[in-house]
Amino acid sequence: MKIENSLQPDIPKIFELYRIATDYMKSKNQVHWPEFSEELISAEVEEKRQWKLVIDNSIACIWATTLNDELIWGEKNNDPSLYLHRITTNPIFRGQGLLKHVIDWSINHCKEQNLQFLRLDTVGLNKGLIKHYEKHGFKFLGMKDLENTDGLPDHYKAGGVCFFEMEIV
After folding, report:
1. Residue 162: C-alpha distances to residues 45, 57, 125, 159 (Å)
2. Looking at residue 14, what is its pLDDT?
3. Host domain of residue 116
4. Ramachandran bin of 133, using left for φ above 0, alpha for ψ from -120 to 50, beta for the remaining angles
5. What CATH number does residue 41 fall under?
6. 167 has which bridge partners?
7. DSSP state letters, 132-164
8. Number of H helices, E strands in the chain
9. Fewer CB atoms inside 10 A, N or C side of the chain?
């Protein structure tokens, strides 16, 4: 197993995994992701903010990172933090505890960059997902509607946002 930056040739697989995850969200009547633009994903790849966990030469999990998430986190964005977005597991690898590897990698990344917090958000109230993230060490900070969703993907307009953080010590 290895974690590395996604590359341009990975983009079709990234979109395939996003489609699978979106279909799953829809099947559970959850707020679901919109179709993300190729420009967004390509920019994340070029900026080395799109990641993949590879097992036996297959992409098992993907996610994006950013160091700036002011539109979602507001004033808390001033804290030195790593923000995780769109964590998606290839269905072939579900149930293998890959989120733990993503979190462990993220904690190490935070320590290397002297970042104080690891943060993520989800849209809509999904109690199972809240418990899942809490089980992995995140503190659930609550849920609120964003005041300004201009510049954010469309699913942020669909409901309240749940906020999670982990302090890095």
Report:
1. 26, 34, 7, 10
2. 98
3. 2-167
4. alpha
5. 3.40.630.30
6. 117
7. HHHHTTPEEEEEE--S--TTS-GGGGSS-EEEE
8. 5, 7
9. C
Rounded Cα distance between 87 and 61, Å, is 7
The residues, ordered by sequence, that sit 6+ positions from 117 with a Cβ below 8 Å of its Cβ are 79, 80, 81, 82, 110, 165, 166, 167, 168
Length of the chain: 169
40 vs 153: CA distance, rounded Å: 10
Contact of 35 with 25, CB cutoff 8 Å: no
Contact 123, 161 (CB under 8 A): yes
Q: How many CA atoms lie less than 13 Å away from 135 in the CB half-sphere?
A: 9
Q: What is the DSSP letter of 49?
A: -
pLDDT in tens, the chain (169 residues): 999 999 999 999 999 999 999 999 999 999 999 999 999 999 999 999 999 999 999 999 999 999 999 999 999 999 999 999 999 999 999 999 999 999 999 999 999 999 999 999 999 999 999 999 999 999 999 999 998 999 999 999 998 999 999 999 8
Q: Domain tally for the chain?
A: 1
